[in-house]
Design goal:
41% of the residues lie in helices and 22% in strands. The protein has 300 residues and is α/β, with parallel strands linked by helices.
Length: 300
């Protein structure tokens, strides 16, 4: 097959943002360019990658399979660029100066900060300042080098690279389901108690389309750990990322529900301001976080 990487970045951006316009904004290209690139890629593959309507773009079965492989290829390509970028320092892997970064509180405490501490041990000339907050900070205006963000990204002029997968699961404890029954459809969710976390909307997949549910219940907290605890106690349904529920599901303490409607995998992103030459400290942090997260049992 000829064409190499032509159309791959455009295809991944459309799949991850859910539309050609948002993909064009992420890539800083025109919508027509993105559309033509994806069309040429489909011609080369002799396969349809997206269902297109005037209001919605969704992946075909072939598109879903192709996306997973393209994301892995893109990560490996990013790794290659990061390895070369390291050579900008005083020596291979050199990272120095102050790295200012931000991340959501719970995820940062559990995953990011321990890995950043490892990075500091390896780079004695590096110092770090980490702001853990659930607010989305303006990296440029507030002078941050790097942010770790979760889920679907809003369109922006920032550079984003995927460092880990992130899948959302609807779950409940067996005790809750014994009392209230098992929801057998998306429409049945309205009759259940829901444990509400940081999001007022739960996203599901309905025939290749996004289906948004507004959960209702008498319990709310902006902590995933707290939501998990309430779910394990049988208070209601929860929708949480895989790294919270993988172990309880494997142990039978939580039951996954409506898995056929699970939304397409979102991701964990490293996001940074667009610059002509990205500092080695940012390269080093991204690479270390990606490699470290891949070793965590929650992501295996």
């Amino acid at each position: 097959m000829t064409g190499g990487w032509d159309g791959i970045d455009e295809f991944v951006a459309v799949a991850e943002t859910g539309g050609f316009t948002r993909a064009a904004e992420r890539l800083r290209l025109s919508s027509s360019h993105v559309s033509r690139s994806v069309a040429r890629l489909e011609d080369r593959l002799q396969a349809r990658l997206f269902y297109r309507t005037t209001r919605k773009v969704s992946l075909t079965e072939s598109g879903r399979a192709f996306l997973a492989r393209c994301q892995r290829l893109a990560e490996e390509r990013d790794e290659a660029f990061l390895a070369v970028g390291d050579l900008q320092g005083d020596g291979p892997g050199e990272a120095k100066g102050l790295l200012r970064m931000t991340c959501a509180t719970a995820y940062g405490e559990r995953f990011v900060v321990p890995l950043v501490n490892e990075l500091l041990e390896r780079h004695p000339r590096l110092s770090v300042e980490i702001e853990l907050t659930n607010r989305t900070l303006d990296l440029v205006q507030e002078g941050y080098d790097l942010a770790i963000r979760l889920g679907r990204l809003n369109e922006s002029s920032l550079v984003a690279t995927r460092i880990a997968p992130r899948a959302m699961h609807l779950c409940a404890a067996p005790a809750y389901l014994e009392r209230h029954g098992i929801p057998d459809s998306l429409g049945a969710l309205a009759g259940h108690q829901c444990l509400i976390g940081t999001s007022d909307g739960w996203l599901f997949d309905e025939g290749g389309r996004d289906w948004l549910f507004r959960p209702r219940g008498r319990w709310r907290c902006n902590s995933g750990v707290a939501v998990l605890d309430a779910a394990l106690r049988g208070f209601g349904l929860c929708q949480l990322p895989d790294y919270y529920v993988k172990e309880p599901v494997a142990e039978g303490r939580l039951v996954p529900l409506l898995e056929r409607h699970r939304p397409p995998n979102t991701a964990v992103w490293a996001v940074y301001p667009q610059k002509r030459h990205v500092p080695p400290k940012v390269h080093a942090a991204i690479r270390h976080l990606r490699q470290g997260l891949a070793k965590r049992p929650e992501y295996r």
